[in-house]
Amino acid sequence: MVESTHQPQQTPLCDAHRAAGARLVDFAGFLMPLSYQGIIAEHCAVRESAGLFDVSHMGQLRFRGNGAIAAVDRLVTNNVGGLADGGALYTPICNDHGGVVDDCLVYRLAADDVLVIVNASNVKKDADWFLAHLGPNCEMFDESEQTALVAIQGPRAVEIFARVAPPTIADLPAFNAATVRAADVECLVARTGYTGEDGFEIACSADRATTLWNALREVGGDQLSLAGLGARDTLRLEARLMLYGNDLDDETTPLEAGLGWTVKLKSKGDFIGKQALQAQKKAGLQRKLVCLVMRSRGIARHGHLIQSTDGTTVGRITSGTKSPTLGEAIALGYVDTAQSTPGTRLVVDVRGRAVDAEVVKGPFYQRAS
């Protein structure tokens, strides 16, 4: 057997994670903290107070030039052209067949400056796709290695971050971004996140990441917990936020995934995948992504088969866990459209054992305000 010589990349905060006693794992080619004190404790801390995440593994692609907005607008399904300066949106990136190349966040920083944050596992794939389809008067720059990204999420996140940033940061609307100095670090701060809670995602120069991280830990004190990838996954699943490679892929369309609200077939011009998505919408969906709650003992996991009550296979689980917030097993999965109505009873094959499940209206968790 030939041993792998692959060495995962390290984020600018890797030494800080080691010092905090993190359990480090190779994720998407990066050495990342899975947890510090335990996934359930970190999950609950984010729901009840605030958590601090290192998400520097995410890709940061910058588009500059007079054609930047038009170029990005053609590359994604949502309406980038409708953003004002400082505005942000979530959007899939589609191929010609309507399949999802990736999902991302787009920030209009200026008329000639657009930032796109993509999934860590897809940085090269996305960059190659963008370059192959880039419009005129626009250049793309991969700033991933020069930039760190952290997220502070939870009901106390805004209050804690305002202790190191201008107090007016609390007034930043959701899905908007602004440049501020926080802990004497120049930051791009966005009111976005991946947990179902309020908070910020904060980008800064890689060489200033530790300063920002330590300052947030100091002012957060007992109100702020370090949180790793494990809690990030359970939090996003409760909020029905999708994970690329599990719930989305090149063979899945945004319409099947319930992301029709991000596909602007009428309110914007041409974009890659538009014709295929128009045709699918007209023909009707054959399958849909649904939320499932297990009604008998067992946890559904990625790849488990979903069956109707008569034993016919009707779909497959894409993500599943036991919800720390709800105390019951939950999952996402694609099923035949006829089986997608809330209240439908199904069965999940969990390693050869039939586990009763019910289709429910998502998300599983939604914050009060």
Q: For the record, what CATH class of the largest domain applies?
A: Alpha Beta
Contiguous uncertain segments of 5+ residues: none
CATH topology of the largest domain: Gyrase A, domain 2
Q: Beta-strand percentage? A: 25-35%
Radius of gyration of CA atoms, rounded to a whole number? 21 Å
**Can you tell me the number of structural domains?**
3
Tell me the major beta sheet.
6 strands, mixed
Report helical residue fraction. Answer: 10-25%
- Order of SSEs: EHEEHEEHEEEHEEHEEEHEHHEEEEEE
Word description of this protein:
With 369 residues, the chain is α+β, with helices and mostly antiparallel strands. It folds into three domains: 9-58 and 146-238, Probable tRNA modification gtpase trme, domain 1 (Gyrase A, domain 2, 2-Layer Sandwich), CATH 3.30.1360.120; 59-142, Aminomethyltransferase beta-barrel domains (Alpha-Beta Plaits, 2-Layer Sandwich); 286-360, Beta Barrel (Elongation Factor Tu (Ef-tu), domain 3), CATH 2.40.30.110. It is 19% helix and 33% strand. The chain is built from eight helices and 20 strands. The protein has helices spanning 14-19, 39-48, 68-75, 123-132, 157-161, 209-220, 229-238, 274-283, and strands at residues 9-10, 23-27, 30-35, 51-54, 59-64, 88-94, 100-110, 113-118, 139-142, 147-153, 177-182, 185-190, 199-205, 225-226, 287-294, 305-307, 313-322, 329-336, 345-350, 353-360. The strands form four sheets. Strands 11-12-13-10-4-14 form a six-stranded mixed sheet. Strand 11 (177-182) and strand 12 (185-190) form a beta hairpin. Helix 2 (39-48) crosses helix 7 (229-238). The longest helix has 12 residues, at 209-220. The protein is globular and about 65 Å long. The termini are far apart. The mean pLDDT is 97.
